[in-house]
Amino acid sequence: MRLRGRNLIMYSILFIAMGSIYYILELLWRGRSHWTMFLLAGLCGSLVGLINEHLLTHDMPLVKQILIGEAIVLPLEFITGVIVNIILGWNVWDYSNLPLNIMGQFSVLFAFVFAPVILVGIFIDDIIRWRWFNEDKPRYTWFNK
């Protein structure tokens, strides 16, 4: 995929928007965050936003988009956790006290927490693309018709 000027601007705005929104949500939720969470959220939000653009259509039900989003976000969270928390030792998060965790960097419980965050990311991505970049007006269904 080649980035043209317009696309570079759009993806940069989407990256910054997604990173900023998640960073603020984490500040409200935990009372703190870390700059790596801004980068991870910007990447995850941008990749989730590409679901409709490259993989599928706007006709895809939201439930399916969220599940694909989970398949993007959760592995990236684990990989980032291994790098940031274990290799670099920055201790940004630790899920080892939670059940169903892997190396303290991933917890199945957070898949449920991330689902509404992914949904908000889908809406924000679609609204920014529609309002600022004249893409198709978003339309949604929860399940297949």
Note down, in words, how this protein is organized.
- This protein has 145 residues and is mostly helical.
- It has helices at residues 5-30, 35-55, 62-87, 108-133; strands at residues 101-102, 106-107.
- A two-stranded antiparallel ribbon has the order 1-2.
- Strand 1 (101-102) and strand 2 form a beta hairpin.
- The chain is globular, with a radius of gyration of 16 Å.
- The model has no long low-confidence stretch (mean pLDDT 89).
Topology:
Layout (H helix, E strand, L loop, with lengths): L4 H26 L4 H21 L6 H26 L13 E2 L3 E2 H26 L12
Antiparallel strand pairs: 1-2
Helix pairs in contact: 1-2, 1-4, 2-3, 2-4, 3-4
Structural class call reads: mainly alpha
Oligomer: single chain
- Residue share in helix: 55-70%
Low-confidence stretches: none
Strand % is: under 5%
- What order do the strands of the largest sheet run in, or round the barrel if closed? 1-2
Gyration radius, rounded: 16 Å
Key phrases:
145 residues, mainly alpha, two-stranded antiparallel ribbon, 3% strand, globular
Describe this structure in a few short sentences.
This protein has 145 residues and is mainly alpha-helical. Helix content is 68%, strand content 3%.
